[in-house]
Amino acid sequence: MRLSADTPSTPPPAPTRLDLLSAMLKIRAYEEQIVAFHAAGPFPNVCTSVGQEAAAVGVVSALRAEDQILTNHRSAGHLLARGADPGRMLAEVMGRSTGYCQGRSGTLHISVKELGVVLTSTIVGGELSLAPGVALSRAMLGGEGIVVCFFGDGAACEGIFHESLNLASVWNLPVLYVCENNQWQAFVHRTETMKGDFVAPWAAPYGIESLTVDGNDVEAVRKAALQAAAQVRETRRPFLLEAWTYRQRGHMEPHDQSYVDPAELEAWLAKDPIARLEARLLADGELTTASLEALHAQARHAIDAAAEFATSSPYPDLSDLAAGVYA
Amino acid sequence: MTQMTFHDAVEAALHEEMARDPRVLMFGEGTATKRKGLLKAFGPARVRNTPLAEGIITGTAAGAAATGLRPVVDLTFAPFLCFAMDELVNSAGKLRYMSGGQFSFPMVALAMTGGGWSVGAQHNHNLEAWFVHAPGLKVVMPSTPADAKGLMKAAIRDENPVLFFMDIGLLFTPGDVPGEEAGDETMVPLGQAAICREGTDVTLISYAKTVHACLAAAETLAGQGVSAEVVDLRTLKPLDEATILASVRRTGRAVIVHEASRLCGVGAEIAALISEQAFESLKAPLVRLTGPDAPVSASYPLEQAFAPQADAIAEAARQLAARNLEAAPIW
User: Fold this and answer.
1) Which chain A residue has the Cα nearest residue B54?
2) Which residue, A86, A294, A309, B309, shows the most beta carbons closer than 10 Å to its own?
C-alpha cells in the first residue's frame, strides 16, 4: 500500500454484527487448524490467540485502510481481521515460500506490508520500541493515518513500554496503544508481576489518556476502539486502550495449562467472546441455529482451503538461505 | 580542500545530506543542543533532542527507517549501545530478512569510543566486533576527517543499518577534507579499505586510531630498511577482503592491529581470512597486536597503554621481516 499525503481518509463501511462474528469465527477456525496440525505431527511451536478474538476484531474493524498496525507473537487475529489470506499465513507458519515473508518469519513475526501490518516483533516489547518511529514517519511524511500497536500485559512490564509511551507523548505521535491484557505473561500470571490489575493507569503519568474495555465483548471493543482511534486521529497524540481478556490456551503449542487455576479458566471460558456474541445474536433473532451452523461451516471451509494451499506449497530453495539479508 | 576536525567533518556530511534529502533527520541525547548549526538550518522537526533512553531512540529510528524516513541517531558513547542491542540487532538487523524483504532499514547509529578522554570503561569500550557478528548490519570506523565525512555520506545513503563508530582520540584532530563543491567525489563507499602507505616487506592492517600508530611505525621501519604497507580497513563490515588479501600476497607478512580486545576481535577474523585464502603467500606467522581482555582504565597512562603503540608495531614488523618461511608445501 503506497501511503502519501493525499491519501484520502475514508471510514470503511461499518461491519454488521454478523460480520464481526464471521471474522472471529475465521480466527478461531484458523487457530484450531494450527492446533490440529500441531497435534498431528511435527509442526512449529505456535502461540495461538484463542480467546482474544474480540480484541483483534473489535480494534481492527475500527481502523481505516491508511492506518498501520504493529503486532506481536500472538498476531493471527490481527492479521486475519485486517484481511490477510489465511493460506499465505499458514504457509508462512509452515515455512513455505508462498508465505507472506517467504517462510523466513514463521509464525512469530508475520508482517504484511500491503495491508499496513508493519514490523511485527516477537521480542516482547519490540513492537513498542518500533511504534513511535512508524508514527514519526506518519507525522513527518503526511497522511491521515494513525499507528496501532498491539501488545500484552507482559510487554507492559518491559522498560521499553515506558520509554515508548514517554517519547510518543513528548513528540505528539499518533499511536493508538492497544494492550490485550490476557492475564498471562508467558508462564506467569500477571498477579505475580504487577501490583495493580490494569495497565491503563500507567498511561496517565506520561500525559496519555486511556480507556479499559471488556475485551471479550467485540461490540464494546469496537465502540471503544472507534472512540480511541478518532481521538488519536484528531489530536495526533497517543492513546492507550486496554482490552481485558484471557488467553484460553497455554503460552504456546504443545498446549499445557497445568499451571493454570482451573476455576479461573472455567470462569473465563464462560465469557468466551464468540459464544457471547452468538448468544446475543440468537436472542435478538439475528441468527438461527441453522444460520449459525452455516457461518461455522463457512469459516471452516475457508481454513480448509487455506490448509490445502499451505501444505501443497513448496519450501524455499536452499540456495536462498542467506539471500535478502541486505538491501 | 579545507582543514577541519573529524568531528566537524561528520557534521559537514550530516549538513550536506540533510540539505540533499528531506527524509534525513537526526535525533539523540543532546543532538539539538549540541548541533546548533543543523538545528538552525533544518529546524526542530528534523534535529531533535530525546530522553536519555537508547532503546527507544534506536527503536524509533528503526520504525521510522522502515516506513520512509532516513534517521541518524546519536547514541553518544559506545557502551550505551548495550541499551539498544534489541533494536539494533533484533529489529534493524533482522527484520528485513525475516519479513521476506518487505522492509529495509536505512539508518545510521553514531557512537564514540576509544581512549582519549579518560572516561573509563562504561564510556569507552571498542565493541565494534559485536556488530560485525550481527547479520544485517554494516559497521564503519574511520581514521581521518576526510573518510569520516565520506563514509557518513555513504552511510546515510545506504539502504541498510550502519553503525558508525567515532574514535574519541581522533575527534579533534584536523585533516584535509573535500568541501561540498566536490559533490559526490567526497563519498567514500562502504566496504572499501584504503592503502595509506605502500610497501613490500610487511602489511600493517588496522582501523581508527591505530592506523596512525601503524603509519608512524612504517616511517620508523623505513629508516631501518623495512618497507611496510599500511591498510586502513575503514569499513569493518562489509570487509574489503580483496584489498587485505592482495596486500598480504604481495608482502607475505602481516601485523593486524586494533585497540579493541583480542579475543574474537576483528583481527581474529582477518587472521582467519588470510590463513584460509593466502596461506601459501605467507613468509611468517601472522601477528595480532590488540588491547587486552580487560575493561579500559580511566587512568590516562593506562588508557593510552590499552591501544597498541607505534614502537610495538614496528618491533613486531621488524621481527616478521627477519623471518622468511620456506614456501614449500607442508601437506
Assistant:
1) A163
2) A86
